[in-house]
Amino acid sequence: MKQLFLCLILFQLSALCFAQRLPAADSAVITKHQLTANGQRFSYTAEAGTQPVWDDKGKVLATVQYTYYTRDNVVDLARRPLLISFNGGPGSASVWMELAYTGPKLLNIDDEGYPLQPYGVKDNPHSVLDLADIVYVNPVNTGYSRILDEKADRSTFFGTNADIRYLAEWLNTFVTRHNRWSSPKYLIGESYGTTRVSGLALELQNAQWMYLNGVMLVSPTELGIAREGAVEKALRLPYFAATAWYHKKLSADLQGRSLESLLEEVEKYTLDILLPAIARGYSISAADKERIVQQMAAYSALPVNVVRQNNLDISTSLFWKELRRNDGFTIGRLDSRYLGIDMREAGERPDYNAELTSWLHSFTPAINYYFWNELNYKTDVKYNMFGSVHPWDSTNDRTGFNLRQAMAANPYLQLMVQSGYFDGATDYFNAKYNMWQMDPSGKLAARMRFKAYKSGHMMYLRKDDLIQATNDIRQFITDSLPKDNQAAKYE
């Protein structure tokens, strides 16, 4: 009997420990802070909390964790923009933009984005909190967000369209709870987060009757816009040229040019010569093919034989391995400024992503320190930098065209795309291609803008680009705010 009693106690303790590893479904911790950003000194409030995800019968299925920053002493919320921020993955937390881009704190890194010790955070003098309130949202299984009902259907959360549907419903509740329906609203997403916010723009309009003023895509994915065969192969070349320029691997005449001037030439070559040549396959003459081989090698700084032997089809993974092979290095995927060291110099792809290990090195201790010590958000739940969201249903992705539809239906809605020249995963030229294909008629082109920076996927890690990119956000918000009593209509 005594043994049975002890087993029961141990079982209860085990259950209690397990419960402590799950977040509260609905909670908020409020802290007060001060910041100098964009030359202004002001007080602000941070709300770190969780908000439930319910099923259609009101049962709690999961909780989504968020951090909500508001500038104090704002009298008129109807004039105060709200910036709703998502990161990507899918399965990635919001930590990246919260602690390195738009938020009130920056992690401790050098001016190029490399980790420094001691780990931690400091004030962000470039935060856009001077102009807009910000909420960072962690979808289910990222950050501190979790599924709470073990019987919940994972397909409710883990899929391109499922993700958009439940987050739109969640945002409706958040905006209502915080009295922000009258505020101008903006979505910003990075990487897969661009797929998410592109789909949300239309879902919020059609299912939640919530209309936006702007969408910002940081290092966008393909957004469901097909590019196969010759198009997919050809569009890589401008990224190759940009990265070769950064590593000083080009011939003297090309290396001596400004990056922007060089890329203008390479983009034109890609569309006018390389794309149709690849499309022609073996029907192209040997002489024409050899001229293109030579030019591709010149722009990419790859050996001529590598280009020739791959029939003008150079994969990005081969490029990351080959560009600095003779120096004993690989280059990064998401940011090709970063260097890696493989076990063997031979091979066709790097052993690991040099940039991602560097980022996790600095972001992971910073976010854990920040929530515990500065936001007073104390929990035994692990902060998932990357959480399990598999299997992920990626079918029926029309998010790019959904964003276009949202813009067509909402004359207020504007778009800004931000890309790093040295991003090899979601490269800048494919980001341009997205815009061209989303609106082939050009009728919405006046409401689209494109910005590029001399860095990679997270362009804001480089100090000079952080300054420029946050200023671009401020300008975009300012430009997209309608004048008082300006009607949302086409003339």
From TrEMBL:
The keyword GTP-binding does not apply. Residues 1-19 form the signal peptide. This is S10 family peptidase. SUPFAM superfamilies: alpha/beta-Hydrolases. Keywords: Carboxypeptidase, Glycoprotein, Hydrolase, Protease, Signal. The keyword Protease applies. InterPro entries: AB_hydrolase_fold, Peptidase_S10. Pfam families: Peptidase_S10. It comes from Sphingobacterium bambusae. It comes from the Bacteria.
